[in-house]
Amino acid sequence: MSRNIEVALYRLAHARSGDKGDRLNIALICYDPAFYPTIAEQATAERVAAHFAARRPRKVVRYELPKLCAFNYVLDDVLEGGVNASLGLDGHGKSLSFFLLTMKIGVNPALLTRCTPPELRERLRR
Amino acid sequence: MQQLVRIGCAAGFAGDRADAALPIIGELASHRGPRFLMFETLAERTLALCQLEKRRDPARGYSPALDRMLPGTLGPCLENGIRIIGNFGAANPRAAGERIATLARAAGFPRPRIAVIEGDDVSDLFSTEELAARQMDGKVLGPCANIVAANVYLGAEPIARAFDEGAEVVVTGRVADPALALGPLVHAHRWDWTDWQRLASGTLAGHLLECAGQITGGYFADPGRKDVPGLAELGYPIAEVEPSGELIITKPVLSGGIVDRRTVVEQILYEVHDPSAYLTPDVILDITDVEVMPVGPDRVRVVGARGKPRPETLKATAFLASGMLGEAEISYAGPNALARAQLAADIVTTRMAKRMPELKIRVDLVGRASLFGTLAHASSTDADAAPEARLRFAAQHAYCEPLELLLDEVEALYCSGPAGGAGVRRYLTPRLASASCLIERDKVMPTVTFVGASE
What we know:
Order of helices and strands of chain A: EEEHHEEHEHH
CATH class of chain A: Alpha Beta
Largest sheet of chain A: 4 strands, antiparallel
Largest interface: A-B, 36 and 49 residues
Structural class of chain B: alpha+beta
Helix content of chain A: 10-25%
Radius of gyration of chain A: 16 Å
Number of domains of chain A: 1
Helix content of chain B: 25-40%
Strand order of the largest sheet of chain B: 11-12-8-7-1-2-3-6-4-18
Strand order of the largest sheet of chain A: 2-3-5-4
Number of helices of chain B: 12
Oligomer: heterodimer
């Protein structure tokens, strides 16, 4: 059996943040349905909580949406008070979707060919 | 004959593009049947700021977006039988209605049917103590809170009623954003208020439309990964909704942007928490079985929304004055920029610790760790790693004076700080804290009145 290769979640999925008060949600959407089981197994609520540990989330819940090939993460109390209280530039947490995408995921090399950026795939084909 | 209803969305927030409506109007004008143009221009904070403006001048207090977005669109809509729905009313829907009547006259339409929805403002209905007792979370609202605005999220019923009574333009204050689409749909399709299935579909349509360009490729592009053509002329969305509630999301022909599975799924989950229970005043929407199917170029079919009976209570947001935010920035560039920025930060924090020890100051190195904040690891200390460093200081206080002190200290870095400090900018902005409350439905009586009806 081939060994997994570590890649950033960014290679496998795209994401969008939303906020309500001090609560952040991040929708994580697989580029390819084949990535869903790998992400489901590894990008657990616990691991996401650990990834965001510096913001001390009070609670992280993951909702699974297999029909949309997506996950919805809801992180409580990670926005430094939210848009009306945070002293930071991004009180909405809009940029934090890209922080989630920096998380490392172990991927089977066979799957890796599917997560090559289109332009690189084009070059490899030539 | 069963008719398709088309709803375009020309604005997803008050600062949205004012010229985005014209391609949608062009597209809608080429079709027949019920057609609506929706504007969502009322962020939570916008409403509180409008309330403050209304206190200064009772004739104002409507969304500033009205005067940016409607002058060019009102005439073409009225001319083509496209009805308008927007929450331009903010703190003063009646004044917004009057203003729209004036704009319509200027566009050559002397007597348009303009309906005004009121009843969302509950600041006179409840005392501060009564609102505090209805708080959902936390303890933002104390007995002495200085409440600036308290508005309940109305549902789609008064909007549908206004169209039933013949409105060509409907202007609201605070309503749930999806209600801006659900109202026209219930009116045009004669849906029942207990048909949770269809109400859920209409609510999903509204949720997909409410952020305008966010479903047609806006707020989506990531060069090399998710490329979007024509973002400079992004086409805003149109929903085509069947009587059954099945819907297709598309955009005007020849406009920029894309509508595909990825753009639609990002928006489906936007600001959603539990996907099986998205609470609105009209229905509880369950999107766990929703499916997204591309059916043509820039055409995506969305099916599978499920509905559960609406919640017992309505949500209201109360805003209270919470002091000022002070921010000041300064830049360093070239060799050793990071070290000079770090020295500047040390100087300001050392002096402030002496002069105003209780003031909590946040320092960001913009371009290095400002957005991710504590999440980012200040990895590289290579002096040449950053060709520029912009330092940002921020603090909040009930009064301006302690913040002025901080802002002055940053500005003083020009002559007393490290070499090469440049581009100081300083800002003082009023802050508003918000609290969510649950309000009994029987306390809220939305009204529909027509502009000029009493004359």
